[in-house]
Specification:
The structure holds two protein chains of two kinds. Chain A has one domain (3-219). Chain A is mostly helical. Chain A has helices at residues 3-34, 41-59, 62-83, 93-115, 142-164, 166-176, 178-183, 188-211, 221-235, 240-266, 271-296, and strands spanning 131-134, 138-141. Chain A has a two-stranded antiparallel ribbon with strand order 1-2. Chain A is 75% helix and 3% strand. Chain B has two domains: 2-138 and 270-340, 3-Layer(aba) Sandwich (Rossmann fold), CATH 3.40.50.2300; 142-263 and 346-376, Rossmann fold (3-Layer(aba) Sandwich). Chain B has 13 helices and 13 strands. Chain B has helices at residues 2-22, 39-56, 72-84, 97-109, 122-125, 142-153, 167-179, 198-207, 219-231, 246-252, 272-285, 291-309, 315-324, and strands at 26-32, 61-67, 90-92, 113-116, 133-135, 159-164, 186-190, 211-214, 237-240, 260-263, 335-336, 342-354, 357-370. In chain B, the strands form two sheets. In chain B, strands 6, 7, 8, 9, 10, 11, 12 and 13 form an eight-stranded mixed sheet that branches. In chain B, a hairpin with a 2-residue loop joins strand 12 and strand 13 (357-370). Chain B is globular, with a radius of gyration of 22 Å. The termini of chain B are far apart. Classes of the chains: A mainly alpha, B alpha/beta. The A-B interface holds A 2, 4-5, 8-9, 12, 15-16, 108-109, 112, 117-121, 123-124, 129-131, 139, 141, 143-144, 210, 212-220, 223, 255, 258-259, 262, 271-272, 275-276, 279-280, 282-283 and B 35-37, 39-40, 43, 165, 170, 187-191, 193, 195-196, 198-199, 202-203, 205-206, 218-220, 222-223, 226-227, 230-232, 247-248, 250-255.
Chain lengths: 305, 380
């Protein structure tokens, strides 16, 4: 394995991790603050991608498309919170899972109803397309660098929001003791709607950013949702810092494992068997990672209690 | 208690009457994917099938359509319902090989005719072949074999090959290597449903390959092509038609231009049946047909041709009539081999742009009168 290949794969792992963070941040906030398991988080990711594809198709502007994805997902999130999720806070987790699973089905078929069954077109804008030369002779797609940059900026912004603003204090307080902050006069239901919409907006933006290099289609959110759950379990449920570390860990493990394992097996197996075994084990690696983390720290890396 | 019995009796009588009335018609049960990921394929196949029935003007066929949601367990339930409650004569429609493997063997064992309009798993072409099972599309390996033959003819000697890690994926790479000369520069099995191919593309770049072959159906192919075009690797790409069919080309966009892919059908094939089909499909549905639509259309026409020759209640005569394949296929020449799988030409197509629509143009023939590698293992 050459240095160039290794460096490129590190960047790929980083970029994948950043994307996972955008998904996991909303999920972990909602779970931490409201104690709600939201399976429909992946649908918000899909809504963001579809909104971006529709706006990019109509206006041709990628920036507008990203704004549309944020707005559409936040609006959808707020609407869902007001109409459905609000009734679930006092219920147990099984009811929440059932109701949000129903939301997945409704949102998926609703999206198909509006946009049709065929994948939509959303492409990287011309000023971000194509590869660039990095120091050391690494050739890397500019758009992926853009994703890394945008994701890191958002992560910094989110940390600032949580640590430095009044809303952030309320969110942290909500995580620690729901009843107490309600007693202190904070409008808890407005805070919940806000947190849910914020998480939805992040998921929607992730959907739009990724949609440009993948396919915008119904059901695109569910595979990512599973990974996002792995991330927040590893990072510790409710912790934004945990979500960031967990996301980077999962991104790196998945990318490097898929590349390195077949090579390791090729040392003592015949090549085609090594690729098959390596690929299978590579896709299991993040779950093994999760199991190991849970054995060492049952509440995740940064989980409370 | 008495009342319930009476109600049941009445229902049974009504059901029997319904069955008696339907006897003059051939009842077709279609199980296909109409919702969830991959619904575009099922919808195209269904639309092609129904178009052929409509154009024929015949009212000899009654179709019951069910949605399997791409889930094997649901497909099995629907098949039971169609066989036991609806009492269909002929079944068709399944898109995915894993669903076909769950449904077809038991359906044909219950003496139903099954006409496959898409899936062609090797297990049903070789040892598991059955007189009641007809495949009107292709055996799964066929288009990949053609891609291998094309790569060899084009002088590629270091092709990098990749496919998802599931049975149809391993079949694809095996099929490709069957007609390909030389050793692949690299061989990767990706995760099924994977959407990010940055790691694989980096390996292609580092491998020193002279071309790339991939089998990534549906959304996976869209993701791969967009990311590949953006990576600047720039090696020529060869693939089966599944990643470049009409339904997804618009989503891939300019990234697919110039890609060579293999298919048993193309919308520009010059025969009367195809011209009628392409024009009628566009008029009826307002979009260009895909290869799945052509397969649905051919399947319905095959069925109609057999209905014209034999009564469906005489299974032997009906099977013989199907085997003759006496219908005007959109692919031109079409006949069945000994294992009831197609013997047909497989073409090489190139992705082009017509106005603002991306589509395929046939540029040559990869394999002529091509059967499949499993026919010899079929004992019927």
């Amino acid at each position: 394995m050459t240095f160039l290949l290794f460096a490129e794969q590190m960047l790929n792992g980083l970029q994948f991790g950043i994307m996972l963070f955008l998904m996991a941040a909303g999920l972990t906030l909602v779970f931490g603050v409201m104690g709600l398991i939201n399976l429909a988080h992946g649908s918000l990711y899909m809504i963001g991608a579809f909104a971006a594809a529709a706006v990019a198709g109509a206006t041709g502007s990628f920036t507008l498309a990203l704004i549309a994805s944020l707005a559409a997902a936040a609006a959808a999130g707020a609407l869902i919170e007001l109409t459905v999720i609000r009734r679930l806070y006092k219920r147990d987790h099984l009811d929440q899972v059932l109701a949000t699973f129903a939301l997945i089905l409704i949102l998926s078929e609703g999206t198909r109803w509006v946009f049709g069954s065929f994948p939509l077109y959303l492409d990287v804008p011309s000023y971000l397309s194509g590869p660039v030369m990095l120091p050391g002779g690494i050739q890397y797609p500019l758009y992926r660098l853009y994703i890394i940059g945008a994701g890191l900026l958002l992560a910094v912004g989110l940390f600032a929001l949580i640590a430095r603003t009044r809303i952030g204090i309320q969110i942290r307080a909500g995580e620690a003791d729901r009843e107490m902050i309600a007693a202190l006069g904070v409008d808890i239901s407005r805070l919940y709607t806000l947190v849910f919409a914020l998480g939805a907006a992040l998921a929607g933006l992730a959907g739009a950013l990724v949609g440009a290099i993948q396919s915008v289609q119904v059901g695109m959110g569910e595979p990512v949702l599973i990974l996002a759950f792995v991330v927040i379990v590893i990072g510790g449920i409710g912790s934004i810092k945990g979500a960031l570390v967990g996301a980077l860990l999962v991104g790196m493990t998945d990318t490097m494992g898929g590349v390195l394992l077949p090579r390791v097996f090729a040392l003592f197996m015949d090549p085609s068997a090594a690729t098959t075994v390596g690929a299978s084990l590579g896709s299991m690696l993040i779950y093994i990672l999760m199991a190991v983390v849970l054995i060492m720290r049952p509440s995740g890396l940064y989980g409370s209690t | 208690m008495k009342l319930t019995k009476l109600a049941m009796l009445a229902t049974t009588a009504l059901l029997a009457a319904g069955a008696a009335m339907a006897e003059s018609k051939v009842k077709v049960g279609m199980i296909t994917t109409l919702s969830g990921g991959g619904a575009g394929l099922g919808i195209d196949a269904r639309d092609g099938f129904m178009l052929a029935l409509k154009l024929s003007g015949s009212d000899a066929v009654e179709v019951v359509i069910e949605d399997d949601q791409r889930k094997p367990e649901i497909a099995v339930q629907l098949a039971d319902k169609l066989i036991q409650a609806e009492n269909v004569d002929v079944m068709t429609g399944i898109i995915w090989s894993n669903l076909a493997m769950a449904v077809v063997p038991s359906a044909v064992a219950q003496d139903k005719i099954y006409l496959s309009l898409n899936a062609g798993p090797s297990a049903l072409a070789g040892k598991g072949c059955h007189p009641n099972y007809f495949n009107v599309a292709w055996q799964n390996d066929n288009l990949h074999e053609a891609a291998g033959a094309y790569a060899a003819k084009a002088g590629y000697s270091k092709t990098f090959i990749l496919a998802p890690n599931y049975p149809a994926g391993t079949d694809a790479l095996t099929g490709f290597k069957r007609f390909y000369k030389g050793a692949p520069a690299g061989e990767i099995y990706t995760t099924l449903g994977q959407t990010d191919y940055a790691a694989e593309i980096a390996q292609i770049r580092a491998s020193g390959a002279d071309s790339v072959f991939f089998f990534l159906p549906g959304g996976m192919g869209i993701s791969f092509m967009k990311q590949y075009a953006d990576s600047g690797v720039g090696l020529p790409v060869v693939g089966p038609a599944f990643s470049f069919d009409q339904g997804i080309l618009q989503a891939v966009g300019a990234a697919a231009l110039g890609v060579v892919n293999t298919s048993q059908w193309g919308k520009d094939l010059d025969n009367a049946a195809n011209q009628t089909f392409v024009a009628a499909f566009q008029q009826e549905y307002g979009r260009l047909p895909s290869l799945y639509a052509s397969q649905g259309y051919d399947t319905a026409n095959l069925l109609l041709s057999a209905i014209g020759k034999a009564d469906v209640s005489d299974k032997n005569a009906f099977r013989a009539a199907l085997k003759e394949a006496d219908f005007a296929s959109t692919r031109g020449d079409f006949k069945f081999g000994t294992n009831n799988h197609p013997i047909q030409d497989i073409y090489v197509r190139e992705v082009i742009q017509e106005g603002d629509v991306f589509t395929n143009k046939i540029i040559g023939v990869a394999l002529e009168d091509h059967g499949d590698a499993y026919a010899a293992k079929c004992k019927m």
